């Protein structure tokens, strides 16, 4: 059976995403990975990458940066080249998140360069059509997220299931292999269950986990629901 993907974007919620909270979230994710075997991806803020990488060291949990800049290392003050992320030990990078958009030419540059550096790419898109446009570039994963539902707690899989099914449809026409994720408003196990039932392989979640009273319970519930959905 193909493993479902639980990708957790910490964003920059304060204090939830920082310091001891980020470390604890990473340890909770390791527990969920051990107990369920789902593919868990964590995307902490840049400032927490090192501690989260240490927290998951020796496990199957992957750590992604939330963004990278389309630059070569050098005189680029404040920019983040992929080489720096590689050096830190990240497994992958999120590109073109709705809150940090990139031009399509820059996504192309970063996807190709990341592949050369053995860094996985999770490219976000706001519509099924944009999802297909970025899938053509050959990333490892595409997440389609309607921006109006992000952070609302209203799940795209329930409120706009046609966005999910259309995404699978148009993305599969141009790329047979890319992993397709559902994102925006995913909050419960049921939201994640519906996302896989609609044809995607996992979910990209932020507030529903990061701001939860018990992030471990929510991650576990989502992981188990997706396993059930794919069985
Ligand atoms: O990267 C995560 C997405 O933007 C979804 O955010 P959300 O789960 O808070 O709606």
TrEMBL record:
Q: Which UniProt keywords apply?
A: Cytoplasm, Gluconeogenesis, Glycolysis, Isomerase
The molecular function terms in GO held by this entry are:
triose-phosphate isomerase activity
- Which residues are listed for substrate binding in this entry? 9-11, 150, 185, 206-207
Identify the main location.
cytoplasm
- List the Gene3D superfamilies hit by this protein, alphabetically: Aldolase class I
The UniProt entry's GO biological process terms, in alphabetical order, are: gluconeogenesis; glyceraldehyde-3-phosphate biosynthetic process; glycerol catabolic process; glycolytic process
Q: Which reaction does it catalyse?
A: D-glyceraldehyde 3-phosphate = dihydroxyacetone phosphate
Q: Does the keyword Lipid metabolism apply?
A: no
Pathway linked to the protein: Carbohydrate degradation; glycolysis; D-glyceraldehyde 3-phosphate from glycerone phosphate: step 1/1; Carbohydrate biosynthesis; gluconeogenesis
Of the GO CC terms on this record, one is: cytosol
| Enzyme active site | 97 (electrophile), 145 (proton acceptor)
Question: Which superkingdom does the taxonomy of this entry point to?
Answer: Archaea
Quaternary structure, per UniProt, is: Homotetramer; dimer of dimers.
Q: What task does this protein carry out?
A: Involved in the gluconeogenesis. Catalyzes stereospecifically the conversion of dihydroxyacetone phosphate (DHAP) to D-glyceraldehyde-3-phosphate (G3P).
Which family, according to UniProt? Belongs to the triosephosphate isomerase family.
List the protein's name.
Triosephosphate isomerase
